[in-house]
Amino acid sequence: MADNSIRTELFLPIKLGNISLANRIVMAPLTRSRVNEEGVPNEINVTYYVQRASAGLIISEATNISAQGRGYVMTPGIWTEQQVNGWRKVTDAVHAAGGKIVVQLWHVGRCSHIDIQPGGECPVAPSAIKADCNVYTYIGPQEASMPRALKTDEIPGIIEQYRHAAECAKQAGFDGVEIHSANNYLLEQFLRDSTNHRTDQYGGSIENRARLILEVVEAVTQVWNADQVGIRLSPTTPEVGNSPLDSNVMATYGYLIQQLNKFKLAYLHFVEGATGKNRTIPEGIDLDALRSLFDGPYIGNNNYDLEMAISRHAEGKIDAVAFGRPFISNPDLVERLRYGIELAEVNNDAYYGNGEKGYTDWPKANDF
Ligand SMILES: Cc1cc2nc3c(=O)[nH]c(=O)nc-3n(C[C@H](O)[C@H](O)[C@H](O)COP(=O)(O)O)c2cc1C
Fold first, then answer.
1. What is the mean predicted confidence (pLDDT) over 290-295?
2. Catalytic option among 49, 72, 162, 185
3. Active site annotation includes 298
4. Is 232 a pocket residue for ligand 1 (Cβ < 6 Å)?
5. CA 286 – ligand 1 centroid, Å
6. How far is CA 360 from CA 76, 121, 270, in A?
7. pLDDT category, 241, cuts 50, 70, 90?
8. Does residue 359 lie in a domain region?
9. Is residue 365 part of a domain?
10. In terms of residue numbers, what domain contains 341?
11. Measured in angstroms, how far is the CA atom of residue 300 from the centroid of ligand 1?
12. Mean pLDDT value across residues 243-266
């Protein structure tokens, strides 16, 4: 029978650092809110990830590194033994299905609510500036609470949360970790001058605002080899919390990326544009130029289709592509793209909560 598959290097293996991928189609991190109150992954999470194991790499849904780091109920964690055991079932099953999976390490910072913070305390942030967003609490969406600024002597405790979560990720059998430094959660809140008004060594200059991210990378790479650690950044997104961009995106992110080079990480992952919305880049910002400052492999994301991925890959602008929403409704996305099979459209109702419905019930195409 003639092989009518689409020819592109995107379907060929690649190594991101020391993580070997069967193809260059990556599943983007997707919060799906199907986890219990304790943040322990369960059987339907196992099924969901196994269904998508033909991705070259699965980046897990954002996973809380601590109770304080949590902003959304029903999201998983990676700081307790039960959570580690729950994730172990996911990683074992994904590996048995031939896939690779890294965990996205998440601290939401100011995007949280007193109702879900330990002891009903305020969420923490670089500065006491409220996020303009809803977060998900036990009684449904509520406006994010006013955060309090972290004291300088609390920062080592934040870094320790990342280190501990990285340890737990190792015990849970992941192939590596992705440091979530995107979408204006804690780490990006520190980086941007719009959300960081500190006057200590973690605020003010670019070097100071990048300091926490680099200290987190340092801590995580003491647990994992750096070539199993990736990082996600989103220099031009207002998501989440309607956060203004940094006043000098090129200088700030350029500095950060050059510092990251020292670690020789597995990959850099950008959300290009406004997360899940558009690929519009404000004037004066050139994401390809920023990306090219990075010495290692690069994953591009945001509103890609296969055609755009092929052309940007051919131009040398991406090494791999991450798809988010298409992976929700097409568990066999790689096969569908490879054989030109029509994609199922995702509906927003399926995104969060609701058990198996809209989660594990998307059929695979069988006609190739
Ligand atoms: C339901 C949903 C959940 C998401 N959860 C996360 C997340 O946990 N971590 C993250 O970094 N991005 C998250 N994102 C953003 C996606 O990873 C991705 O950047 C975005 O959907 C754009 O890619 P796409 O056009 O291929 O969908 C989420 C997006 C959606 C639609």
1. 98
2. 185
3. no
4. yes
5. 22
6. 17, 36, 27
7. confident
8. no
9. no
10. 4-350
11. 13
12. 97
- Give the Cα separation of 317 and 231 in Å (integer): 17
Q: What is the pLDDT of residues 131-167, one digit of tens each?
A: 999 999 999 999 999 999 999 999 999 999 999 999 9
Q: Write the DSSP assignment of 192-257 as a string of letters.
A: -TTT----STTSSSHHHHHHHHHHHHHHHHHHS-GGGEEEEE-TT--TTTTPPPPTTHHHHHHHHH
> What is the distance in A from the centroid of ligand 1 to the CA of 27?
10
Confidence at residue 2, expressed as pLDDT on a 0 to 100 scale: 65
Residue 315 confidence (pLDDT): 97
Q: What is the pLDDT of residue 347?
A: 87
Phi, psi of 208 (to 5 degrees): -70, -40
What is the spatial distance between Cα 125 and Cα 113, in angstroms, rounded to a whole number? 12
pLDDT at 252: 98
From 188, 325, 347, 362, the mutation candidate for ligand 1 (largest count of ligand atoms within 8 A of CB) is 325
What pLDDT does 176 receive?
98
Q: Which CATH number does the domain housing residue 143 bear?
A: 3.20.20.70
User: What's the whole-model pTM score?
Assistant: 0.98
Counting every residue written for the chain, the total comes to 368
Ligand 1 centroid, distance to 241 Cα (angstroms): 15
Do the beta carbons of residue 67 and residue 185 sit within 8 Å? Answer: no
Ligand 1 binding pocket includes 302 (Cβ within 6 Å): yes
- Distance from C-alpha of 64 to C-alpha of 77, rounded to nearest angstrom: 4
**Ligand 1 atom with the shortest distance to the CA of 62:** 8
Q: Is 61 in the pocket of ligand 1 (CB under 6 A)?
A: yes
Q: Is 237 a pocket residue for ligand 1 (Cβ < 6 Å)?
A: no
In angstroms, the CA 271 to CA 59 distance is 14
Domain assignment present for residue 258? The answer is: yes
Instruction: Flag whether 81 is in a domain.
Output: yes
d(CA 134, CA 121): 17
Q: How many Cβ atoms from other residues are within 10 Å of residue 349's Cβ?
A: 10
Residue-level pLDDT at 242: 82
Q: For the chain, how many structural domains are there in total? A: 1
- DSSP bridge partners of 64: 77, 106
